[in-house]
């Protein structure tokens, strides 16, 4: 997930969500998780070492080498906003047998460095990126569907972040008023907590995929699932992203808030459509972030466990 490109193309136009019977990959195709091999698309083990400009995410214990005489490093060729190649080709690959669109769909996610929104990669860019990573057996007719799923998940992740910002961008006092009646109470009074316009909307500054680094929460859930598989057993997240968001406070200052996103696959629908779950929350980088998490989840649990919902219904 998270394949935004930071370069801007004024001639790009959104393309319709493609219809395909192809099954999307069970994990983000840019990454290979450490828990199990990627079943789709399969990796060609005979490929040479990863070329420069590829995803810089390394294994935790992999050493980093640098040779001054070897020319520019691969890191220097990456866009620092998304750790991706700055100009991934839109050209058709010589191994390609069908035409793939080159139109890039604009997202609804504002960028922090300009007044524009982030743009998603075109199917042709997605396919070229996968070839650079060694996924040379990717079904070409599935790429458009994979892009559509990728875009859908990123839009869902941003919607969750905006939901957090609606609660806490005005401070902890306002956040408690938004959280004390739980999730249902917040949705019922959504109009009261709508942004009246005095605070700028959040913006995405940059992001990074970290598929080989499980979050503490994901590790805890995996441990509980092993202890009680019948009740809590589930697959570990197939991807993890860190999104750095610009928050503007009531006094006009800006803060950088890091959000952590775990991507989970769920059982497919009866129609065969894939199901995904996103666990989005602010990273515990400060006491304020820890309090925000406790307020939101603790407020919802207390509101339901204390019977407040039943008392509200009885008094209405």
Quick take:
With 316 residues, this protein is of the alpha+beta class. 30% of the residues lie in helices and 16% in strands. It has helices spanning 123-132, 143-168, 172-179, 182-188, 216-227, 229-232, 287-305, 308-315; strands spanning 78-79, 84-85, 106-110, 117-119, 203-209, 239-248, 254-266, 275-282.
Spans of at least 5 consecutive residues whose pLDDT stays below 50 are 4-77
Order of helices and strands: EEEEHHHHEHHEEEHH
For the biggest sheet, the summary is: 4 strands, antiparallel
Helix/strand/pairing category = alpha+beta
Number of strands: 8
**Radius of gyration of CA atoms, rounded to a whole number:** 21 Å
- Please give the alpha-carbon distance between the first and last residues: 45 Å
Average residue pLDDT: 77
Number of helices: 8
**So what's the overall shape?**
globular
- Across the major sheet, the strand order is 5-6-7-8
The proportion of strand residues reads 15-25%
Helix percent reads 25-40%
Q: How would you characterize this protein structure?
A:
The protein has 316 residues and is of the alpha+beta class. The protein has eight helices and eight strands; from the N terminus they run E-E-E-E-H-H-H-H-E-H-H-E-E-E-H-H. The strands form three sheets. It has a four-stranded antiparallel β-sheet with strand order 5-6-7-8. It is globular.
